[in-house]
């Protein structure tokens, strides 16, 4: 196979707070056939990294990033490390995917921005999904103290719960409730039984037909709505199971096709003015004049190019579903903004058409 045909390589971001068991999970996953040809990038907080000595790979493709915590200071280091992997592929090395294991203190947002916005990186790599581990014993207490842990959970495509056998039924139930409050779109899974196949290809969420069907299922988020009105699913800010008061997630569903000129303009304005508040947006759209579903995916001010899917799943509703994961931004701002811009776009076309 020609080197160019290998690109873009899928990248999985493996994150989770300190002690959640990321290295243990990675060691187990790397032994599975689906992970053959995996390059592993590892970051350890501090001047001396240790985790790279603990990760066992079949082909010794573990690379330690040296710039300290995986945050804004490491974006250049990450881009250079990925370019080094791309160069090895161009020279014929059989590398098929990349896993980035972050330090437990990492904010995942700058990493996602690098994967989605750096032009050189985007030519050779594509985000395959965010997998977040949560410690069932300490996770609930951590959420009350550490905003990084909350962001790691909020942006996840897959949530894995470790040490569930040590937490007890009541503790596990309380943790699951908190996870649903931060990220109702990612169903928690036991880390101990997770397979590589469960974690690969999970973002954009619509890449798997099963994920797309679940996403479009009314029971997953909310009841269907009429026109440009919508319902939502969100935990009340007074919910005693909700540990985070600043981050919230909800989904808006639209049963009639949306005008892209209205919705797209509003999304651009939102992220231009309030990027700090937009942790992640992902959606599947039924757009006016477009027969195929369109996937959108954004992190703060960075947007992946909209992607056309082959077709709507047979037997599933054809409608738009957009998930917003926000910090310090009321849901009403989103609802009112979408309604105003989409109504204005539809009205302008009506006037122009006579």
TrEMBL record:
Pfam family, any one: CobW_C
Occurrences of domain CobW C-terminal (ranges): 247-342
GO cellular component, one term: cytoplasm
Naturally occurring in which organism (per UniProt): Teichococcus coralli
Function of the protein: Zinc chaperone that directly transfers zinc cofactor to target proteins, thereby activating them. Zinc is transferred from the CXCC motif in the GTPase domain to the zinc binding site in target proteins in a process requiring GTP hydrolysis.
Family from the record: Belongs to the SIMIBI class G3E GTPase family. ZNG1 subfamily.
Catalysed reaction, written as an equation: GTP + H2O = GDP + phosphate + H(+)
Keyword Signal recorded: no
Keywords: Chaperone, Hydrolase, Nucleotide-binding
The UniProt record lists the keyword Hydrolase: yes
GO molecular function, one term: nucleotide binding
Official protein name in the record: GTP-binding protein
């Amino acid at each position: 196979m020609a080197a160019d045909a290998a690109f873009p390589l899928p990248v999985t971001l493996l994150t989770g707070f300190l002690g959640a068991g990321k290295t243990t999970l990675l060691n187990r996953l790397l032994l599975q056939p689906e992970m053959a040809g995996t390059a592993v990038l590892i970051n350890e907080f501090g001047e001396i990294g240790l985790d790279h000595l603990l990760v066992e790979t079949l082909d010794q493709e573990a690379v330690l990033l040296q710039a300290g915590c995986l945050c804004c200071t490491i974006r250049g280091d990450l881009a250079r490390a990925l370019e080094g992997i791309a160069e090895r592929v161009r020279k014929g090395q059989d590398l098929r995917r990349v896993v980035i294991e972050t330090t437990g203190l990492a904010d995942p947002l700058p990493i996602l921005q690098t994967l989605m916005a750096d032009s050189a990186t985007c030519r050779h790599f594509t985000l395959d999904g965010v997998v977040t581990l949560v410690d069932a014993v300490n996770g609930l207490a951590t959420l009350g103290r550490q905003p990084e842990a909350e962001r790691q959970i909020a942006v996840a495509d897959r949530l894995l719960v470790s040490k569930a056998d040590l937490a007890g039924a009541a503790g596990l139930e309380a943790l699951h409730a908190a996870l649903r409050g931060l990220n109702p779109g990612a169903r928690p899974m036991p880390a101990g039984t997770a397979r590589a196949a469960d974690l690969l290809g999970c973002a954009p969420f619509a890449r798997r037909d099963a994920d797309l069907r679940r996403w479009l299922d009314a029971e997953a988020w909310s009841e269907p709505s009429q026109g440009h009105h919508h319902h939502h699913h969100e935990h009340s800010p007074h919910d005693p199971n909700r540990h985070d008061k600043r981050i919230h997630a909800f989904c808006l569903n639209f049963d009639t096709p949306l005008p892209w000129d209205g919705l797209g303009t509003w999304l651009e304005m939102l992220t231009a003015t309030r990027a700090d508040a937009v942790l992640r947006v992902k959606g599947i759209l039924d757009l006016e004049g477009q027969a195929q579903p369109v996937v959108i995916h954004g992190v703060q001010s960075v947007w992946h190019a909209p992607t056309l899917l082959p077709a709507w799943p047979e037997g599933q509703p054809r409608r738009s579903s957009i998930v917003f994961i926000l910090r310090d931004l009321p849901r009403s701002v989103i609802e009112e903004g979408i309604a105003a811009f989409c109504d204005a776009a539809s009205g302008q076309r009506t006037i122009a058409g006579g």
